[in-house]
């Protein structure tokens, strides 16, 4: 049996993801793992170009670790903060958030959909 080893910096198997505000593209994702149960937990790499990414309150929870790049992050009702490599961000279910990506950005995210 082989053991899967992933390098977060690899740009293989990327698929288009959410576009930056006012553009048709801007981010890409790479699925690393998904719980085989319907609506299971997802682990993915997200890579984004500079731009603004607005997220309405979603019916899921997300925690991510910034691996590369700088951004201004804000959640509804909280002051924006600058984040960079090593920052860990947790987004609760239903909370709108915004990422203003300042430089090429990469994160490793765990997403837990609604049960």
TrEMBL record:
Taxonomic superkingdom: Bacteria
SUPFAM superfamilies in alphabetical order: RmlC-like cupins
InterPro entries, sorted: RmlC-like_jellyroll, RmlC_Cupin_sf, UGlyAH_Cupin_dom
Signal peptide: none
Name this protein carries in UniProt: Cupin domain-containing protein
Ranges where the (S)-ureidoglycine aminohydrolase cupin domain occurs: 44-107
Species of origin: Rhizobium straminoryzae
Coiled coil: none
Record lineage: Bacteria, Pseudomonadati, Pseudomonadota, Alphaproteobacteria, Hyphomicrobiales
